Amino acid sequence: MFSINPLTILLLLPLSLASPINPNLEGRQSATTCGSVAYTVKDTTNCRNAAYSYYGQGGTAGGSTYPHTYNNYEGFSFSVSGTYLEFPLVKNGAYSGGAPGADRCIINTSGVYAGAITHTGASGNNFVGCSGTS
């Protein structure tokens, strides 16, 4: 028969409550909908990873200006602090140049995902929040 010492349980309990999740990784990632386009967690993760990789290398995607600073003129309440970067959000991969489309993921310069925004439904060159971004 197998027996567990109650003291062992008490000693191990704090370890089981500690969170091993790095907030810079996919913990903050979420699926989102921009206008009528639904993006998966994988799509937003691909966007974040590509933006942060280009930023870290000091480069841009395919001769574009992305990633570049996002000034948050619209006043979104992102859950992470910035300096923010914007990068085109696309389905099934990562933006690599050309026409960027209407949708963007926003990260900070530490590579933490902040949210998603879109030109769809906004006036002029402004943005509105995709689902989950306000």
From TrEMBL:
<dbReference type="InterPro" id="IPR000026">
    <property type="entry name" value="N1-like"/>
</dbReference>
<keyword id="KW-0732">Signal</keyword>
<keyword id="KW-0540">Nuclease</keyword>
<dbReference type="GO" id="GO:0003723">
    <property type="term" value="F:RNA binding"/>
</dbReference>
<feature type="signal peptide">
    <location>
        <begin position="1"/>
        <end position="18"/>
    </location>
</feature>
<dbReference type="GO" id="GO:0016787">
    <property type="term" value="F:hydrolase activity"/>
</dbReference>
<protein>
    <recommendedName>
        <fullName>ribonuclease T1</fullName>
        <ecNumber>4.6.1.24</ecNumber>
    </recommendedName>
</protein>
<keyword id="KW-1015">Disulfide bond</keyword>
<dbReference type="Pfam" id="PF00545">
    <property type="entry name" value="Ribonuclease"/>
</dbReference>
<keyword id="KW-0456">Lyase</keyword>
<dbReference type="InterPro" id="IPR016191">
    <property type="entry name" value="Ribonuclease/ribotoxin"/>
</dbReference>
<keyword id="KW-0378">Hydrolase</keyword>
<keyword id="KW-0255">Endonuclease</keyword>
<comment type="similarity">
    <text>Belongs to the ribonuclease N1/T1 family.</text>
</comment>
<dbReference type="GO" id="GO:0046589">
    <property type="term" value="F:ribonuclease T1 activity"/>
</dbReference>
